[in-house]
Amino acid sequence: MCRGGALLHPGHSDAVPLQPTMKFFVKVPATSANLGPGFDALGLALDLWNETKFTPADKFSLHIEGEGANRLAPNQKNLIVRSMQKVYDAAGKQMSPVCIHCINRIPLASGLGSSAAAIITGLLGANAMLDNPLSSTDILTLATEIEGHPDNVAPALMGGLVVSTMNESKVVARKIIGAQHVVPLCVTITLPDFNFPTKQARAALPKHVSMKDAVHNISRAVLVIEAFRNGDLDLLGKVMDDVLHQPYRLPLIPGAREAMDAAKKAGASAAALSGAGPSLIAFSAKQDANIGEAMKRAFESVGLSARVFELGISEEGAKIEIKE
Fold this sequence. Notes:
disordered N terminus, 25% strand, 2 domains, globular, Alpha-Beta Plaits, four-stranded antiparallel β-sheet, 324 residues
């Protein structure tokens, strides 16, 4: 239970006073990075959302429902709280006590941007509590510093299909498609019950690649953007193959290659690892349960259970609502 009350830490006069009845609601979408050849550059927001309520209180509390409820730290070590602290530090303020209530729908360690969602949640929540001293650019910069790369945090914040890169120490990100995309694309995510940490996924990659492989991915990444921009699923199916990361990661995830092939046989126009995996993402013109079931059976054939999510692309990024 969250109770309003004194919001200043004893002995800290720079804590920020808030209205005891004010509540901040933050919603952040799941994201899928890479999209085949767009390694570390492309990211897509998906219509699967974490929702978090921040309420001023007389002492800190954190409650988690849904994904990660029994795994995530319910204290100051939680990534949401650590991200909040970054905003307070940037503003030169002492963090005020708050009651945080999370409803998590994005699976952890899945390749669907759960850490990016937590980071954006914390940054937006703290920024709202401080009356928004940081701009969207500031938020994206801080999020990238925490995450280490912008390919998930950028679409989580901006929505749609986002291309991002680093120019020296600054993030450059552009939303390529949003409400203007012509043909709605349906997304099927299949997540096997397999632990594949991002650190392991990164370690599997080669330190050097050939010029031929670099050109292969550069040309196809541009065409992936064009396919999304025009809803051209035929083109997407021709250009979503990758040679920089998937050939090294797919063999480490039992059944993943077979599941990708099964998705296409079941009617998907294109399929790829979602981020570093272990989940797979498949695209089709209409929602078709056969696609997810085919991928699920492929994983089950090697002894792994799997969950299927039938989603759409989210044209919107993170949202915040303030209520008295």
